Protein: KaiC-like domain-containing protein
Organism: Methanoplanus limicola DSM 2279
Amino acid sequence: MVQYLMNSTEIVTDEESIVLYFSEPEKGRATNTDIIHNCIGKGYRVIVVTNNFPSKVLEKLYVKNGINPDEVFFIDQVTSFGGGSSVKSDGNHIMIRSPQDLTGLSMAFSDVMKKFSGDKIFILFDSLSTMLIYLPSDKVVKFMHFITTKLRTLEESGAILAVKGGLDPMLYSQVGSLVDEIVDIG
């Protein structure tokens, strides 16, 4: 089902669902922030997989928007890649060496799901569009299938962010078949 929402503040998440959110490029950060705020308010343990912005940038954005960044766990694929080699994984961050490292990302994802296994988890994957810069679409679809299958097996929820108009029709239909809902934030 595709929903068209007037603005991202209307975002609603249901338990055990996976949603693909499309937004205009300039609304990506606001969409990310609104989803995080909404999920924390609903009692989720939020895990952000970011290949779009370094986690430190997102943390500053969250603080600016009234979100305590300590309530979010980050799997960061871009900080090390962008030259932040001195930044190490810690209790609230796992640093992956590059956006192309799907093996490292898969292992980190599995580790985090185990770490928070007693919590109600929400995974935010930001962003599918950026992932396509680094990887061919067939690998992206296979990885998204892994993520969505893992979430369903563990009865957890998640969202995938993408830029509106940023997916070719074949990729749109393939990824669309993996989610419960597609939301176009108009």
Observations:
- The chain has one domain: 2-185.
- The mean pLDDT is 89.
